[in-house]
Amino acid sequence: MKKLISLILSVIVLVSVCACGKKSTPGTDTAVNASVDVEVKAEFEQAINCIDNGDYKNALVILEKIPSTYSDYENVKKTYDETLEKYKKEYLDEAKKYADSDDYENALKSLENIDSRFSEDSEVKSDATKYETAWLNKQLSSFDSEKDYASAITFLTNNKQRFKNIDISAKIDYYKKLYKSQVLTEAETAFSVGDYQRSVGVLQRGLSILGNDNELQSKMEYYKDRFPVNLCDLSPYQKKGFYYSDLSDFTDVTGKEYLGKYIRGYYRSGYVSSDSEKAIGIYYLNCEYTKFSGKFVMKSPSYASIEFYDDDTGYLLARGELTEKSVDGVSFNIDLTGVKFLRIEIYSMRENVALVEARLYK
Asked: Among 342, 248, 343, which residue's Cα sits nearest to residue 299?
């Protein structure tokens, strides 16, 4: 038993001696750390040299490689932060230089090319927002001065992806509101002077830019429904005498030419109509029209007359005469409100007159 205990103690002593034999020689670790510090210090000095030469980018690359175990790491960290600010300032100063001369586009390009280290930097974002806003306002000012709201909308829509720091949705809505008001006003003005084609054209153009808009669509249908109808496109409910539509051109006594679609009426010698010497046309309007316009003209000097009646009541709506001195013809604007049947009577001894530009309006 004593021998067993003696053996165990011998093993323990042997293990202890071996363990002690693995300890570092005093001063060895310190020597290694000093060697590393010398290498890192050389790198640090290289970074400082880059900074002195304004090469902040490479300085930062070197500083980022210095381990945190370096004995003077606090100084490295301080130098890194200061260099980072100087590097950022280079970009900001370059952008500001462009912005100060109102060249916001190149100012933004400077910031777009900025080092990725600053992609989320608040100061960089603030300047980018400021320059984007200034550039946007500069572009829009020309549209505002011309009141060219349609082009402003097109510009904003086409460049929407370009604005990374500001939301231009509100701007687009603002110009759409202005443009819509402009379209409605322009269409109404054209309609009020009888330019129906233009009124509809203006609204169609507005819809192409604004997209589906119920108010514009409704207005367009309203104007379309009120397009003037050429009287020659309606067949007379009744005719008497030589009253007919002519599709050939007509030249009046002044030499003015009227292209196609006009009313002719005359009394042919030797022909006795049921209504004396008048050519008559009666149109069924069904109270759908509010106004008639047209002009009574002649080819050569002579006498002729024209009369317009509400055929139901026999009320004379308008009358005009042509004489040898009536070279300019006679123009009519007749209120047709409530007229169901329109009766037109033309008296002319010769095939010499025409009712031109005869239109009905709802």
From this structure: 248
**Cα→Cα distances 155→145, 162, 212, Å:** 15, 11, 19
Q: What are phi and psi of 256, to 5 degrees?
A: -75, 135
Cα 359 to chain centroid, rounded:
37
- 274: pLDDT strictly greater than 80: no
CB 175 within 8 Å of CB 190: no
The tens digit of pLDDT for each residue in 35-73 reads 667 888 888 889 899 999 989 989 999 999 999 888 889
In three-state secondary structure terms, 257 is strand
Query: What pLDDT digit, counting tens, does each position of 173-210 carry?
Result: 999 999 999 999 999 999 988 888 899 999 999 999 99
Indicate whether this model's pTM tops 0.85: no
Kindly tell me the burial class for residue 350, based on how many C-beta atoms sit within 10 Å of its own C-beta (0-12, 13-18, 19 or more). Answer: middle
Length of the chain: 362
The amino acid at residue 239 is K
Sheet containing 304-310, strands listed edge to edge, beginning at the edge strand earlier in sequence: 238-240, 278-284, 341-348, 304-310, 315-322
pLDDT per residue over 152-166, tens digit each? 999 999 988 888 888
The Cα 150–Cα 157 span in angstroms is: 11
* The two structure tokens encoding residue 284: 């069924």
Nearest CA among 236, 254, 266, 228 for reference residue 354: 266
Mean pLDDT calculated for residue range 23-28:
38
Is 50:58 a contact under the CB 8 Å cutoff? yes
Helix (H) or strand (E) holding 266: strand 262-266
Please tell me the distance from the alpha carbon of residue 73 to that of residue 70, in angstroms, as a whole number: 5
- The DSSP 8-state label assigned to residue 282 in this structure reads E
CA angle 149, 154, 160 (to 5 degrees): 120
95 — alpha (psi -120 to 50), left (phi > 0) or beta? alpha
Closest CA to 244 of 279, 209, 273: 279
